[in-house]
Amino acid sequence: MNLPTTPSEWERLLSVATPEERAEIEAILAADMKETIWRPQVGRQMEALNSQAYITGYGGAAGGGKSDLISGLALTQHKRTLILRREKAQTDGIVQRMTEILGSTDGYNSQKSVWRVTDRLIEFGGLDNPTDHQKWQGRAHDLKAYDEVTEMRESQVRFTMGWARGPDPAQRARILMTFNPPTTAEGRWVIDFFGPWLNDKHPNPAKPGELRWFTTIKGKDFEVEDERPFVLFRGDPVYDYDPSEFSPEKIITPKSRTFIPSRVTDNYFYVKTGYIDTLQSMPEPLRSQMLNGDFTAGVEDDEWQVIPTAWIDAAQARWKPRDAKGEMDSMGVDVAVGGKDNFVISRRHGTWFDELIRIAGREIPQEAAGPISAGHVIRHRTDRAAVHVDVIGWGLTTCNFLTENEVQVMPVNAANVSLERSKDGKLKFANVRAELAWRMREALDPTNPDPVALPPDPALRADLAAYKWKLTSRGIMVRLKAEMKEDLGRSPDDGDAVLLANIQTMKLEVYEEIRRNVVERDRYRELD
């Protein structure tokens, strides 16, 4: 006889059991509950519990037992837990579930949002404000649980993940992210983060629960073959190395990642309540998102988004790497010196944009900002391309050094007044920033006869989708960089660099050739 493996099978067994058999089964279950206060439901929830991945994504549809899994892990598997929502008040649902499991709120301090259960510490927090993640800097937890992570900023999640550890070396540390499909463009980063499982265009898709290994190099995720440590040599991983020849920070150890889908049908108790009927009554695309966990269903753009996300996706889908890139026409440079922002260079060859070059701002000291930043530009510039530099902040110093070295540089002050109009001639621009963002919109418009190709970079995609506009008496106004930073949790350096590279500036030698031809023509006319 095969033993039941799901709650529904147990219920069917109980329905045909004799009173004596039923009493025996209930006695066994009661004894089991004395050993542990919580057990996962057989199926996807148990699979997530037992996964050996360092980072586990769990969910995909409403009602799959996400909050229950977080509660159970915190109460039975871990000693120090941090549970985060976008707003701290949203953690009340998990507090309620823990109360149901424990039977009381003994040990819970609502003022400090801390729950002590015997030797376990569980903390609750939110990541609503752009600086909220800093509260958790250096705070070690062996379980970091992000509930509805698609509502959070990617940068804040990655920052707080850095302290997933505990004082007990025998205690496993892990990260759990639970979520439904994103309903806004800001949450799309999760699809790229779990790309092998969620991105239907991923070149090497993964099965549910399959382990993949990733590391982050210069702020970008890279998937590698397995968990073996390696060092970088000229940008490529090298596994055959002598550890004694490298400092510990130069040795990279990949971390495992997986995604396990769950739906309401995996949650036997929700099925019994008729929750499926509730989800089925939702309008599309919410119905497909919440009932089926469909990550391709209608993620809506903000109605004031400058560039529709679908246009960005199309431009990135067109992009293919090139050995022969053609002549470089333009460079866009978003300058950062010191601090957390990146110094970003975008290179444009016709309508094809090369992969972005990012240099950490902290690698450019203030005392040598001019020569170092200008050196980066010159090193990556070819074909005497015109260089467009954002001069707000340290950009003017970069411009001065480039000018001294006879580089054609165009200083761009985004706050200056624009005298231009939209392509159709109907709309004015309040300033240069609005003009640049709108020109990128026009370039990516599907009706553009010269299609633009953008590198398939998730951070660039997020930046370009973050530009929002409004119409004022002065014309189109695009929100400030500081306002975008609040939404993104970082500076939109990548997007700004691409906007600058999109500027059409005649090369100096072309201009000089035209000028000479005009002078020569006028001289011949005088002779005639």
UniProtKB/TrEMBL annotation:
Q: Which domain of life is it from?
A: Bacteria
This protein is called what?
Terminase-like family protein
This chain's source organism reads Edaphosphingomonas laterariae
